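This section describes the prediction task in plain terms. A model, or a person checking by hand, is given the sequence of a single protein chain and must write out its three-dimensional structure as a string of tokens. No templates, partner chains or ligands are provided. The sample shown here is typical of the held-out split.
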Amino acid sequence: MSDINLDLVENPVIKAFIQDQTKFPENFKLNICEDDEMYLFSLNNVKDDRDRALVRYYSIGRRILDTVKQVVEWHFGSFENVPSFLDFACGYGRFTRFLIQEIPPERIWVSDIYANAVKFQTEYLGVNGIVSTGKPENYLIDRKFDCILANSFFSHMPERTFTSWLQNLYDLLTPSGILMFSVHDECLRLANIEMPANGILFSPQSESQSLDKEEYGTTYVTEKFVRECVARVSGGKAFVHRIKKGICRFQDLYVVTNELVRDFSELKFNHHPEGYIDVAAFTNKENLYLEGWVADVNFDGRVEELQVLVNGEVVQRCEPFYDRPDVAGYFETDGALQSGWSCYLPKNTVALEDVLIVKAINNYGWEWILETCTVKSLVNQRQSQSLLGSTQTKLKLLETQLASAKIEWEQSQSKLMITQTDLQEAQTKLVLAQTQLEQTQNQLVSVQMQLEKTENQLINVKQELEQAKCRVLAMESSKFWKIRSAWFEVRRSLGLVGD
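The expected answer:
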């Protein structure tokens, strides 16, 4: 027995939870293996609050049982009619410890890649064990099962092994058996990540600290992809039914069978109600005041009542009676609007060391545990959350101011970009004008040079003309020119020459 289990039997918080939430409390196997990753994951999520981690661990196991129970009762009538059950990828028994209170351990087989997990369950829970393999082609089983559950397994498989493992499990079914497996639907992926055309998206990330994340990561699939896989492995023979967010209102649950003993329309699946305690504080008169919300998301569901138990005894009952728009917004339904509740516990009915169980019950009888803890722990935690809430409010205000400043900056940047664009256009026009001016100036210089050349030529012509005139004048004033002129006059008078 590991250190985790040393005080579980005497832990008042765990005793109260087991007494209230299990079918046979006196026979419930509550020990947890120190290597159980699901427990360690819960412990990390509640910042090492051990009691809360234990309650969360057991609560999830109980919720999975409630889910499986609805499918089993639809197909088999009851757990008593299930000849054999295989819990594939079983882990260290978070679910199986509840299952053995419904089905005798000798009719249950568990299988996991962790040999230590299989060993823990066979020795402590008394079930049959099968150590799984890393490669689906090496998983060879010589028997078949009437009911197979693969919870949170295919939500981690890459495409290359998804279909192969589905083929393996389908082949292990008896002719009238059912296979249940869960997946992450595509709606759970980050909004900025595009879904591949083939309908499966794999990321090498998971909560496992030891498995190869390239082989065991996080997978998102479309319904079309799942149905095509089932059709492929069954040769089109199998019937498939999808229960949206069937596992803890998170993962989708698919039910596969070769023979519809009952039509899927008769499978009336209902979710648990949900709720939270926002305020837990002592008043001036030392009464314990509790306030929070509870809501039911089923189509025709409602919260019948909220119960407060002190040390296992119901001391207060109430119903939601005022509107919580924030809750309606979160669930995206007006049916969750009237979900607010509050109640007082008189000071003589509760003490700091008492164990509180606060739970909501819907009209289908499903229960949601809001809290199982000591009064002291609940009050201290809510006070811490109140201080955190105050800090978060201030942070949100700063974020709002920052967002406003960012918008203003973006607007100014936009205006600046417009101004810069205008400036660039003006600069372009200026450069064009400067280029045209330079071209005009060059043309003007060329014209001026041509003009100067023409003027020089004209001066030369004038000079030559003046010189010619001078020569003519000189000639005309000479004796020779006078004798020549007289000679031509004599010839004209004699009619020997024309004009």
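For orientation: DSSP finds ten helices and 17 strands in the chain.
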